[in-house]
Every structure is written in C-alpha cells, then in structure tokens.
Amino acid sequence: MIRHILRLVWNRKAGNILIMAEITISFLVVFLVAALALFLFHNGRQPMGFSSEDLWYVTIDAPRTVGDEAAERQELERQVLREVASMDAVEKVAVVAYPPYVNSNSIRGWDLDGRALQSELTYLSDGAEEVLKLELVSGRWFQPGDEELAFKPVLMNERLAAEIFGDEDPLSRTFADPPKEPREGYKESRVIGVFTDFRRNGEFSSLDNMMLLRRQPGDPDRQMYTVALRMRPGTTAQYEETVLERLDRVAPSWSFGIRSVEVEREEYRRGKILQVVLAASLAGFLVLMVALGLLGVLWQSVTLRTQEIGLRRATGADARQICLQILTEIMVVAVLALTVGAVIAFQLPLTGLLDFLTPALTFQALGVALAFMMSLALICGFYPSWLATRVLPAEALHYD
Amino acid sequence: MFKSYLVMAFKVFMRRKFFTFASLFGICFTLVVLMVATAALDHILMPHTPDVNNDRTLLLANMSLIGEGVRSTSSPGYRFLDQNIRDLPKVERVSIFTQARPIKLYRDAESLEVYVSRTDGQFWRILQFDFLEGGPFNDEDERDANRVAVISRRTEERLFASGNAVGKMIDVDRQSFEVVGVVADVSYLRTGFSDIWVPISTSQSQAYRADFMSGFSCLLLAETAGDRRSIQEELASRLPDIELPDDERYETLVVSANTHFEAFTTQFLSSEYGEPQAGRAGALLILGALLFMLLPSLNLINLNLSRIFERSSEIGVRRAFGARSGSLLVQFLTENVLLTLFGGLLALLLSQWLLRWINNADLVPFVNLELNWRVFGWGMVLALIFGVLSGVYPAWKMSRLHPAEALRARSKL
C-alpha cells in the first residue's frame, strides 16, 4: 500500500514539493521557538548561585586616575567603604567588579592543550561571598593576607573546574601556561576553591564558565566602580537616599548611583519572558496560517479527486480505507518534509549563529517540533479525508 | 477591461469564502508584522524630533585603544573631543554631551527614576527639540556653569503636578537647578534622549576635562549631507598623529564618526573595532523581510495553485476565444495583487490597533511608535511586492493551461 501511495505522491510532485517546502519551513520556525523556550526553561531550573534578595549595589562615577591622584583615590575608596559599612541597615559590604545585572563584563580566553577555553571573570574583595551569598563546594574563599602568597589565588565555578580538570581534584592546581616572557612580579594562578555558580544575569541566563579573582584592597589597577551591599532584610527603597546622601558627604566630587538587584532581576525576567511570548505568538500565527492553507489545499485536492475516489468505492473500498488512504498520503508528504527539516535543523548549530543550541537541546527541540508538526498535519488532513468518505460512488461516476 | 477583471476577481473571492478567508488571514498577518517592523525602523532611522537633521549629522560614541593583546573600548573622553574634533573642516556645529544616565529623585516617600544628560549649548542648535515652555540654555550657560535645566514633559508631570515648571527648582545629584525649558518627550531610541538636560560644566568635579577616554559622546553637524564622507576621512587621517595616554600599552586609536544608520547598525553587527557596516545591514534587512515573506508566500502560492482547476472552464473559454497567455497572466496577477492590497488596508487598521496596544502596554519604555504616511507608503509597497511574489507562479501556471485541456477539465468537475 505504501508503494502505491508513494507513487500517488510522486505523480503529483510539483504541487507536493511546494506543500513540503511549506511544512519544512514551518517546522524550522517551530523548532527555533521550541529551542528558545526549552533553553530558558532549563536555565531557569539551575541555581543562580547567589541571592538577589536584599542585595543592593552602588555605582561610582569617578574618573580613572594615575600617578599621585591614584593614591588620593585609594584613600577616598577606603573612606567610602568605611562609611557604607557603618550604616545601620547595611549588614556587610564588599567590592564586586561586575555585580549582577550590570551590562559590562570581562572575559578571559586561553589555550588548554590546544583547546580554546573561555571564562567570564570578576574581581571580589575579601568577604564578598557573604554579601552575594555564594556557595562554596570545596577549598576556601579569599582571605586577608592572600597577597603574600607565591601564587595568584583563583576560585572557579563547578562547570569551569569540570571543564579544565575533569574528575580530578582542582584544588592547588594551576591551569594556564605562563607567558613566554614573564613580566616582573608575575605569579602563576592556582585554584584555591570551587563554588556552585555565580550567574550574574540571573536564572534565565546561559550556564557559563565563571572564575573569581581577588581584588586586593587599594589595587591601583582595579579601581573601585561598584560596591555590593548586603542589606538587613526588610530595608525599603527609601533608605537608598540616605546611602547616597552620606556617600555624597564623604566624596563630594564623585557621583553615586544605587540599584536594587531584586528590582533589576524582575526587569530582566520580564524582558526574557516577553521575548519568548513575542516569538511564540509570532510562530503561533505563522503556524495557524499554514494550517489554514494546508486545510484549503487538501480540501481542494479531495474535491478534484472525486472521480478517483468514487471509482475506488465502486470497486469495493470502504469508507475507512478511503479515509486512511487520504490521511496516509498527507502523512507521507509530511514525513518527507519533516525529514528534510530535521536534516536542516541538525546543521543549524554548525553555523555558529545560534550559540545556545547544544546537542541535547537540539534533540529535545526536534522532538517537540516533530510531534507538533505531525499532529498539525493530522488535524489538517482529518476534515478532507472525512469529506472523501462522503463521496458516493454512483454520483461520482455519474458526474461525467 | 480592467473593470471586468475587478468584477471577476470579486466574484471569485466570494465563491469559496473559506479560501478567501485563509488567503486574507495569511496576507493580513504577514503585512501586520512587516508594518509594525517598518514603523519601528522608521521610528529609529528616519528624521524625527529632535534629530530632524540626522541626514547631516555624525555621531562619535565609541573609542578603542588597541595594544599588544589588550583592547580597551569605551566612549570618548572630553579632552579628546575638545582638542581634536572642533576644528574638522566642513563641520558647521559640534556638540559634546553625555549619554542619558538614570538617577533617582526622591520625593517624600517615593523614588522616581529619571534620566539625566549633560550637554553644551550647541546641543540645542543641532537637535531641534519641541519646546512646550521656555527655551534651551546656551553656550554662556555652559561657560559660566549656570545651574539651569531643561526637562521633558513627562518629568514635569511627575515632579510638578500643576505644570508651569519654568522658573521652579529641581534637585539633581544634590544640586539645585532652575528649570528654563520644558520639551516634548523624546524617544529612548533617538539621539538626545533624556528626561533632564543640564550644562556639562555644572558637574561637581571638573576632572572630566582631562579625560582622554570615557564619558562623552559627540554630535557633528556637517554643512551638507555629502560632506560627511570627507569629514570621516579627515578624522581617520588625524588619528595616527594623536598622542595616546599610556602609550606603553596602547599603539592604535580607533574612533569612528558614524551616520545615524551606521551607528544603528554597529549596535547589532559588531565588527572588529565597531566599524560601520551599513551595506551589510541594509542587505540583511531586505533579506530578513524576504525570508519572513517566504513562508506566507508559499502558503498563498499553494492556495492559488490548488484553485487553478476551479478556474479552468473560464481559462479554457478565454483561450479558445483568442486571449493571449500574457493577458491571462495580467488578469490573475491583478486578482492576487488586489487581494493583497485589500489585505494591506486591513493590516494597516490592525497594525494601528496593535501599535496603540504596544505603546499603552509600555513594552518598550519611552517609545511611541506610530503609523505615518511614510510607513503607510512602505506598507503598501510591501503589500504589492508580496502580491506579485505570491501571484506570479500560479498566474503563470494558469495562463499556460492548454485550451482543450482546460475545457475538458471543466467536465470533470
């Protein structure tokens, strides 16, 4: 029977190719939207690694300084930190070079046995883990006196540690080749601890490598632009003004801004959800349009084939067989189209345009999109095939 | 003859209503999406208040210092702009300003977030704001560091319930400013966006004057649109001679003065060092629109093709009486274009409604998208392209039907 149906499909190849093209493209659209939604869903279930509640940060708008002025700036930095720490509503304060939801970042790339590796990094002052509420897996955090060490202490998230060291214990290991011409004062980097994660852009952001470096107090190369504050639970936004006023008295020549991480998180979430809703409604309308079109085309083709169907009925086929024939024809076209679509979908990650498409995600999205499109084809085929069963052999043949 | 095409088309549309509905649905949806996208692009790219001169302006917003293995990218600093940009030839005006930065104003128990931009006097000459009350500040205010401010209508409403803000005082960064002007709200996506504008020199510290890098943007007004190319070249030729800060680390300076379109495209197409990619962006936009139209076109082509046989009697008769396939092609194409144009009008109404919803729902804060005659024109052009794109193949197929075949096919129906 399948051979017979394949021949039927082949006989109408010109029309069928266009229908196939339509199904293939719709499939790709559904695939992309499914991939995006699944991506965000999976990320949303992974821990952020830090706590955004009652976390604020202060931004400092002050020029970068060199030479003598740098010493002045360092003194002012110290005073600002002391002032913030002395406030009633502030539990703890730390310098975090790139706080959560801040739009700038720093990425370091290096070569690991011929494999290109990349990681985001941020600088933390001692005790920042308590401000951000980061979770340690093994090893230790930075502590005062670490500048005396013979190496540069580094902490990694579990993902990066696993990527570099696999199952081996990362503690006390070094991971980057020394530069060819070591500068003066060069120290090699060594892992002193592993933490769960620090996903700066919150629960919907991608799972990436992250490493933490220590910001020494008063480091002239790492001037202070952002300070993270762990507030007492229940501190309201009105307190922001108090913070700004007091900072202004300490450093009148700088200007300060203050943001609540929880508020930023809410905005970011809303933006991400809006993205998915927009993509999904766009795809939804496209698919609805395709469904209407497909229904129309199939309907028309059944009308045109009244004679053929009447003949089959006359030679003894029952309604069920007719219905099955029409449906199978549609499904054969759909399966051919979806096979082409799946092959294209597998090539998409290779183009590098969609960097979030991992193999696992591709498979899941492929499954969702295939199931969706098959049911769509079935639904669209159902009415025309039912219509075909209504053809009365006598009438159909009489028509001529 | 054209009239008979119209009558014929109408009859065909009414004959099988499901098909007309399916076609119209696809056409409408496609055109609504394209029109909303067009409205957004028009809003971003075409001259609107305040940058009505954006066909003559160049924007310097990025600067990169590049050395062996290091690259530092930020906005240009005041010193760099002040020393190197003002004397470029064929430049009519130069304005240095800071991009709008959010600050909080605290009133009683609540905090308001507003954007503040620091500008010079020329800013108000290059950009033409729509002043509702008062007027701008000028170069003297900037020179004397007068505490004056221009605020947007939205800010006036939020701060002064009674209106009439001119002459009243506002606090920004714990300094008091006298309001001298109120302007109509400016979109977030346009050059010059902010809620409050104050002179640069009122900054509490004057340290910015010594900065080579970071903090500022610069807008140039060329004498004519055509002069912009030579200004860009002149700027590029000057860069190698500029002395760099920290020249042990950095060797090369990259600064580009971009037209409005180039500045827009560099945000999306990041090239090495942010060089403009206008050509590529234009091609991508057109390609994107065509790709988006591909699926709806296929859908419409399939629908139209499947209806060929329905029309075969008509085709057979017309061909038997000597109609050329060319005239049949024109007739069927007309029908399809007519349907898409009708769908286009419908889509226009729908997009009007959708845009109002988008604006009210504040999906993009501080942005007010609207349809104007330009967008309407583009929408109709898109509808036409779509109609021809989706109509040509079925019409060609139909017009090629052999008269004898066509007449015989009729008997089968």
Helix content of chain A: 40-55%
Strand content of chain A is: 15-25%
Q: Alpha-carbon distance between the termini of chain B?
A: 28 Å
Q: What's the order of the H and E elements of chain A?
A: HHEHEEEHEEHEEEHEHHHHH
The average pLDDT score of chain B comes to: 85
Question: How do the strands and helices of this protein lay out in sequence?
Answer:
The complex is a heterodimer of chains A (400) and B (413).
Chain A: H1 2-11, H2 13-45, E1 55-61, H3 68-85, E2 90-95, E3 106-112, E4 115-124, H4 128-132, E5 136-139, E6 152-157, H5 158-165, E7 189-195, E8 210-214, E9 226-231, H6 239-250, E10 255-260, H7 261-304, H8 306-314, H9 319-351, H10 359-389, H11 393-398
Parallel strand pairs in A: 4-8, 6-7
Antiparallel strand pairs in A: 1-9, 1-10, 2-9, 3-4, 5-7, 6-8
Helix pairs in contact in A: 1-9, 2-7, 2-9, 2-10, 3-6, 7-10, 9-10
Chain B: H1 2-15, H2 17-45, E1 57-67, E2 70-74, H3 78-84, E3 91-97, E4 101-107, E5 110-119, H4 123-126, E6 131-134, H5 139-143, E7 148-152, H6 153-159, E8 169-172, E9 175-183, E10 196-199, E11 217-222, H7 227-238, E12 250-258, H8 260-268, H9 278-306, H10 312-320, H11 325-361, H12 373-399, H13 403-412
Parallel strand pairs in B: 5-10, 7-9
Antiparallel strand pairs in B: 1-2, 1-11, 1-12, 3-11, 4-5, 6-9, 7-10, 8-9
Helix pairs in contact in B: 1-11, 2-9, 2-11, 2-12, 9-12, 10-13, 11-12
